[in-house]
Structures are given as structure tokens and as C-alpha cells.
Amino acid sequence: MVRRPLSSFIGGTRLTAAWLLLTIAVAIAYFLAARLSLALLTKPDGVAVFWPAAGVAAGLLIALGPRARWPVVIGAMGATIGANLLGDRSFWSAVVFAVCNAGEALIIAALIDRYFGSPFTLDRLSHVIGFLGAAVAGTAISGIGGTLGFLFHKSTAPILTTWYHWFTSDGLGVVTVAPLLIGLNASVRDPPPNREMFEGAVALGTLIVLSAALIFLPRERWATVLALAALFPLLLWLGARCRPVFSSAAAFIVSLTIVCTTTFGIGVFGDTNFPAAERILSAQAGILAVSLCSYVLAALFEERRRHEAMLTESEARLQEALTAGGVAAFDWEVSSDKSRRSDNAALILGFDPKESFGGAEFFARVHQNDRSQLLAQLRDLRPERPILDSTFRFIRHDGREIWLEQTAKGEFDSAGRLVRMRGLTLDITDRKHAEQRQDLLIAELDHRVKNVLARVAVVARQTREGSSTMDHFVESLDGRIQSMAAAHALLSQTRWRGVGLNDLVRDQLAPYALRANVKIAGPNIVLTATATQALAMVLHELATNAAKYGALSTAGAVSVTWQKPVADGAATTLTIIWRELSGPQVTVPIQSGFGTSLIRDLIPHELGGRVDLVFEPGGVFCRIDIPVASA
User: Fold this and answer.
1) Residue 177 pLDDT exceeds 70
2) Which long-range contacts does 127-133 make (Cβ < 8 Å, 24+ apart)?
3) Average pLDDT over residues 104-133
4) In the chain, where are the structural domains located?
């Protein structure tokens, strides 16, 4: 046996209780409305003149949706049968009327759901028209069944007359009551603000007082017209200032007043001096006129408010987009020199948004070197060439210079004179600065490439002159170019902001370093790009000579040390000591080659430093002094 969870049982119980309460509420509301309607019947068919109960069922189904279908259907049918049996209707006629009333509500709600969806509101004119169409269709169809039901009531009236009376009474009931229920449901989902609630309540209270006062007007035809005309300003106020639910409430109040006065013989619509048919027709016309006027006005004003809100939101988003993109829109009337600019123009151009900023003042702040060109482009505009596309510098009120790119289209009169300019102004200051930085980088790159190529050319020529064979030339040239490439790679890693001396020394000695034959010691000092390139070539030559003839060619060792730069008179100097230990005995070369010349001459030439190269018998010693400003 499968046991249902307790939460599922509780949820089902709550749903059943809500379903039962809704059924009872619908039955009570429908019954009271039906009893009021059955107090005034047409002759000789016995159809109710007004049937607001139809609006109760249809309005609840539209407002609550398909989930309320069965409570509304059962409640409406039960109330219809009860109300008719308490009158002079037969049981079978009451059953037929109950089926027709429930079916009517189902048809109207189904048509609304089919074409407009859920939730449904009367805040659009198309929705109002659709609602009226659904009400006409539903009541017309239910009227056919209702007319057949009167056969059980032994009605002697023509069938078409009976159908017409059913159609008009149910139709007016749907039109007057259902919108109020639909509006109340919408207000529960989205409550109006307190200001609107207060204003709507005051207007409805005034309407109630005015409706009560109009009951006691003289029983003349002009009084009927005056009564309806007096209500129009309040209906207009409610439609313009409040949501449609307040207009629906106003229509309901007026309709209920007309129904009660007609039913109980009070006031203008209850004057027994006029034929009943004429009074009923006047009352129905009055209800229809007030209801349609209220709904249409409310829908039109609500659409306007919604469109204004959408326009305001759209303008706000446009302003945000313009501000984010650094773009300002403008409209300049040439003849009057009046200009209108988007809100963010003050931020871009740097003026007070409260002050007027005409074309003359704008051109006065264009950079003097760009102003004549901009004015010339403006004068060259023609009806066949109306587009202005210019780039210029602009001096803001705070003195800051910015770059603007302006694209605009001119409008001309019949004589071909420029009368208006509309367009966009784009702040391209950052882009211009980026272009300038790029130009500097390209120039610097061009300079460095030229220096590198010149250095390669000199190295190639000197290497060729100092080489006895082609193999020796290729080997020497390859090593020196590899040294330059390694230094370049280190500089690229730091975007040419400099290289640490530790990294440079290790990189140049890496091809020759074993576990204990190289000692490197000193603080990590950052060298400039020029110092890195020059010192890399010197270290390469020292390492190459040590590997071929010195300490690194045997089991010797090399020590490269330096200390923190110290002041030497007016200058601060970085001193690097190269010392070879435990290598073969060193003899002073009879003739200096390119490598020795490079070690002695490159640092003084490139960096203004000093190199002391000594061929001691115990090993080569080299002291390199580099000014800190160059390092």
C-alpha cells in the first residue's frame, strides 16, 4: 500500500477548502445579484431587465483563470436554480437557465484566454474591444439556450423578443460587473500607490454622492441628459489620473444606481408616468454609455501612461548608452543660433547644463588651429552633400583640451540655405591619445630596430675581419647574435621596462655553467634596455673567451659579483667584477681581437662607463663601472 506524504495530504486539504470557499462565495454573490435582477422582469416573457449575476461569473473566471472553472460553474448553477425556484420558475426551466448562465461565463472566459491570455486586464483599447466582443458572443449564444428554457415557463412572447431581452440583460451585467472584478484582481497583484488610492477613493466618494443627488432631479427628459453629463468630468478624472479599476468601479456605481432606481421606481428612471419599456430602454442606454465611456477613457489614458513610461525609460537607456559611449546628440538651429543637446553633453563638453550653449560659443571653444577647417566644412555643405564629418580639438570650460569627432546632417530651406544641423558628437580623446602613444611606440621600435640592425652589421663586419676561416666566422657570429637575441627576449618579457642584473648574468652564462664552476652574487638591480643590450654583449664575449681559453675551458671557475651602487664623487656607479679562478695560465695577447675590443670599448661608448680588463697569470680580471643613470 502506497502512503501519501503528510505534506501532500495537507496541501490537498487546503486546496479543497479553498475550492469549497470559492464555490460558496460565488453562489452567494450570484444569488444576491440574481434576486435583485428578478425583482424587475420584462413583459410578457418574464426575462430580467438586468442580470449583473452574469458579470459575477464571467468576471471571476476571467480574473482567476481556468483554476476557478469548477467553483464558478457549480456556484453559478446552484445560485441560478435557487433564485429561480424562489420565484415562479419551474424546476426544468431553472436547470436550463443554470446551464446557460454557466456556459455563458465559460464561453466569455475561453474567448478572452484564447485571444489575450492570462492575466487579462482592461488597460488597452484592444482589450476593451476584445472584452466587449467576447461578452456579445457569449450572451448571444447563451440567449439561444435561455430562450428555449422559457418554453418550460410557458412564455407567450415571440422567441426573438425573448432572446433580445436575455441578450441585453446578460450583456449589460457582464459589461458592468466583470470589469470591476478583473480590475480588483489586477490591483491585488500590483497594488496602486497610496497617492492614487487616496485620489481614486475621493473621486469615487464624490461620484456616490453625486449619483444619490441626481436621483432626486425633476422627472424630465432633460434631467436624464444632465445626470449623465454631470458624471462625465468625474469619469474623465478617474480615467486620466487612476488605473482602470477605478473607472470600472465608477461604471459599476452608476450602473447600480440606475438599476436600483429603475427597479424600485425611484428618481428619473423610475418615473411611472413614462411607459416601462421606454424607462428600461433609457436605463440600459445610460448604463451602456457610462460603461463604455469609462472603459475607453481608462484604456486610452493607461496606454498613454504606459507609452510615456516606455518613452521615459527608453530615453534614460539612450542617455546611459550615449554617456557610456562618450556620445552626445545635438540639434542646432542655424538662424537663431539655438541648440539643444542631450543631457550628457554637459559632461563631455564641460559646461553647466543649466546654461544655454549656442553654436557661436561652441565654435569659439574649438581649437584655433582647427576652427577654420571646421567652418570651411560647414560652409561647403549643400543640399546634395548634407553630411558633415569632422574631427577637431575642443577647449572645455575647465581648460582641458579634448578631441571631438562630429557627424551631422544639414537641413536646407527652399533657397538652399542651411537652417538646421542634427547629429552626434563623439569624445575621441582617449583614442587620439592611444594613437599618439602608438606613434611614439612605432617611432621607438623603428629606432631600436635600426640600432639592432646597425649593431648586427658592425658585429658581422668585425667578426669577419677577425675570423681566419668561414667556420670560425659563422660560429662567432652566431654566438654573438644569440647573445643579442637572449637580451632582447628578456627585455620583451618586461615590455622593455628593464631587466634584472641577476637574470641577465645567469642567462648569458647558462650555456657554460655547471654545478660549481660559476658563482653569481649581488643584489637584484634593474638595468635599462640600453644597459641590458650592451652588458649582454660584454658578458657574452667574456664567457666565450673563458670557455675557449680561460677558466671555463678546464676545471676552473668564474665569479661575477657586484654590490649596491655607491656614490663616486658627483656620480653613483654600479661596479661589476668578473674574475676567473683555477684556470690555465693566462698570457697577454699580442694582438687584440674584435671580442677584446668590444669588451673594452662598448660600455664606455654606449653607457659612458669604464672597463678595466686585465690578463693576470692566474685568470682574467675585468672590472665594469656603469653610471647608475645609464644602468
Assistant:
1) yes
2) 127/299, 128/295, 128/296, 128/299, 131/178, 131/179, 131/295, 132/175, 132/292
3) 92
4) 14-190, 192-319, 326-427, 433-627
Assign 115 a pLDDT band (cuts: 50, 70, 90).
very high
Same topology between domain 326-427 and domain 433-627: no
Q: CATH second-level architecture of 433-627? A: 2-Layer Sandwich (3.30)
Q: Is the pLDDT of residue 44 over 70?
A: no
User: In this structure, which long-range contacts are made by residues 277-283, counting pairs with CB atoms below 8 Å and at least 24 apart in sequence?
Assistant: 280/42, 280/49, 282/224, 283/49, 283/258, 283/259
Q: Which residues contact 135 (CB under 8 A, 6 or more apart)?
A: 58, 108, 171, 174, 175, 178
| C-alpha cell read off for 378 | 560647414
Assign domain 326-427 to its CATH architecture.
2-Layer Sandwich (3.30)
Q: How do 338-341 and 557-562 pair as beta strands?
A: unpaired
Residues 295 and 128 sit within 8 Å (Cβ to Cβ): yes
What is residue 541's predicted lDDT score, i.e. its pLDDT? 85
| pLDDT score of 448 | 59
Q: Is there a cis peptide before residue 44, judged by omega within 30 degrees of 0?
A: yes
What is the average pLDDT across 46-57? 79
Q: What is the DSSP letter of 497?
A: S
Q: Does the CA dihedral 86-92-95-99 come out positive or negative?
A: negative
Q: Which CATH number fits domain 14-190: 1.10.357, 1.10.1760, 1.10.1060, 3.40.50?
A: 1.10.1760
pLDDT of residue 576: 92
